[in-house]
Design goal:
Number of strands: 7
Structural class: alpha/beta
CATH topology: Rossmann fold
Strand content: 15-25%
Number of domains: 1
Strand order of the largest sheet: 1-3-4-2-5-6-7
CATH architecture: 3-Layer(aba) Sandwich
Largest sheet: 7 strands, mixed
Number of helices: 5
Radius of gyration: 16 Å
Helix content: 25-40%
Shape: globular
Length: 195
């Protein structure tokens, strides 16, 4: 996929602020410090369009990025940040749920996890939630450059077991830094966008 143009299109906490058009969207869910922004930036060859932060839990809004004027990546608020208050966590949950429930443009929700660590119970909950909305259940396992390629399979199996994934091919190791499997991910995304 050749990226000619990419921009932040909208920042939203509710439906009134969502872009009002028919463009298809692929959304990304994941824990606060899992590298969603870095993943988005590496996929669209931009250094810092999606804002990365040293402080986990920074994304508290839904951020819509328009690509080639033809589709959007949607960065959902990160979950699982320990310092956030209970009310704040509930608010993020509502923001995500409203988007997942009501958004007609949404084609797929991708779960982003860190390949080095076993997914948390919150990741499992999020994954089951994604599946319950009828989405495929694709998982991008980031930071694959931080472990040797020989260990990928072991870590992918841990993710598969924890998230109760039937098809191991739904888990794609990825590196934002080294662009490992970038073409493979684009192939998957193009398939989704053409549906």
């Amino acid at each position: 996929m050749k990226i000619i143009k990419s921009d932040l299109h909208a920042i939203a906490v509710g439906p009134k602020q969502y872009p009002q058009d028919e463009l298809p969207e692929i959304a990304f869910a994941g824990r606060s410090n899992v590298g969603k922004s870095s993943f988005i930036n590496s996929m669209i060859d931009r250094a810092n369009l999606a804002r990365t932060s040293g402080k986990p839990g920074k994304t508290r809004t839904i951020n819509f990025y328009i690509i080639n004027d033809s589709f959007r990546f949607v960065d959902l608020p990160g979950y699982g940040y320990a310092i956030a208050s209970k009310t704040e966590k509930e608010k993020w949950g509502e923001i995500i749920e409203r988007y997942l429930t009501d958004r007609k443009n949404l084609k797929e929700v991708i779960l982003i996890v860190d390949i080095r660590h076993e997914p948390t119970d919150q990741d499992l909950m999020m994954y089951q939630w994604i599946k319950s909305f009828g989405y495929t259940g694709i998982v991008i396992a980031t930071k694959a450059d931080k472990i040797s390629k020989g260990n990928w399979q072991k870590h992918v199996n841990i993710i598969k077991k924890k998230l109760e994934i039937k098809d191991i091919n739904l888990i794609i190791p990825y590196s934002s830094e080294k662009k490992i499997n970038k073409d493979k991910v684009w192939e998957v995304f193009q398939g989704i966008l053409q549906q």
